[in-house]
Design goal:
single chain, about 120 residues, alpha+beta, 3-stranded antiparallel sheet, two-stranded antiparallel sheet, about 25% strand, elongated, disordered N terminus
Length: about 120
Amino acid sequence: MRALMLVAAMIVSACSPATQEGPSEPAPAASLTASAEEAACAAKGGEWRPVCRMQQPACVVKFADGGKECSDSDDCAGQCLARSAAGFVPEGRAVTGVCAVNDDPCGCKQTVEGGKATVAICID
């Protein structure tokens, strides 16, 4: 009977949660990296926010010349984007663009290079 009680006590103690005392676990490297990236983003005047369909955090920086008329991306801090009330224009057509307001990589865009529209692309 005594052996049976000993075995029962061993089984019960094996099922109880183990406690660990000592220093806490360090923060995962991914969160340290994200914090460093977020701080670097803020330092250059960007906004750390979710972008694209997957809502992955990224640094989005506004451009001082956003909305200015352009004919090439060399005229802008970012990209020179085609503007048309009717949507995208045929590739190669002469067009005036506007400087992008920020560097958010997502959405549908058509750039202007050398005063002509390039092929439109959509990035999710």
